[in-house]
Amino acid sequence: MTFDQFLRIVWARWKLVVGVLVLVLISTLLVSLIMPKSYKATATVVIDSRPDPISTTVAALGGALPSSILATQIDIIQSSHVAERVVRMLRLGDIPSMRKRWESETDSRGSYEAWMGGIISKGLEVRPARESNVIEIQYDGNDPAFAATVANAFAQAYIETTVQMRNAPARQYSEYFEERARQARSKLETAQTKLAEAQRQRGIIATEERLDVEMARLAELSNQVLQLKAVQVEAGTRSNQARRSPDQINDVLINPLIGGIKSDISRQEARLEELNARYGENHPLVQEANANLKALHARLRNETGKITASVGITDTIASTRLSEALKAYDDQRAKVLSMKDQRTELTLLETEVLSAQRIYDTIQLRQSQSSLESNAGQAGVVLLNAATEPAKHSSPRMLLNMAVASVMGALLGLMAAFGVELFDRRVRSPFDLIQTLDLPVIGILPDPSASKKGMFRRLKKGPDPSQGSGGNAVVPVKPMASA
Description:
By secondary structure, the chain is of the alpha+beta class. The protein contains 14 helices and six strands. β2 and β3 form a beta hairpin. The two termini are about 35 Å apart.
């Protein structure tokens, strides 16, 4: 279909198009006047993205919230829980007519608050503001005051539900941490009792300062043992030498008394030789000299024996002192080891006490935090603007309805015109003849009622199959095909 055909059909059926358009406009106007007026009240809430000053588990999101969080908040507002809370807040259960309607529709089965919440939720519309944390809560009702009241009730119920959703887990955590705190306190008291009992049994001797003193005493005894071992080795060596060669030991050699005796023996031996050479062996002087020499030798042996005995006594004393030092060292070493064992046991008990104390303090801190969160009355949602009674109704919107009706009426009118044209097809232009008869148009006779100028202009221009006129078309007869 060409645009020319479209215009010819519309022009031929314009009364039908206008009639349908007028009918649709009148119907829309009547329906808009008959429909009850609806009022839409809007309350806005803002979700605060700042960090919670009480809770340590909620971090600042900064800026606009993610779309998933806003979608979750919208679902919460539209949930049956919030709607039932609105029913309780507005005391809609006290309306006898609604009670009777519920009983008749449900046979008193189910929850009245859930049923009533489903009814009032039909007029609710929740939508987020663009690129912000603001949520608009709109309610559409027949009464402006009721619409504003319900919108504010939904906003308040949403805030209270958010607080409840936050406080309920915190309250459960608080109870859990309180029970854990009692158990941790019991363990701490048990550990402290064990530590006190262990300290009382050991007289609190296994302290760091006492252990340091005993360690220093052990080191001192070790040094004494080493020194006494050196002394005992030296004394043993001198004693063995004294037993083998008493006159060759250093103590004998450096002793002045022994040296004097040896000098006397030397002089007496020289005198004896002189007297023996002069008087002979039997002379009294020679015999006296022999007696004196024997006495000097006896004295030398006696003094040497004394020195040798003193060396042996020194060896015995050194061995005794070494044995005593070794015994004292072993006793001190056993004491230090015992104190270390006690210190280890007490350290374990002290570590157990400190661990129990840290666990108890941590649980107590979390319990206090959860208790604060469970009693908090804010949940990061603030009522930005409360709903007020709308001054004008939101529907029906007369201008919008008439504009839509005009467009729809025009479309319906055109559809009706083309529908009638399908059942009542007429030739309105030469192009229609070409399509219908499949024959070329030779010429177009002018309309007798047309003006002469228009007639001459058309004859001069010649026929145009794509454009028609009010003239008569001359159609040639299609020749028959030869046999």
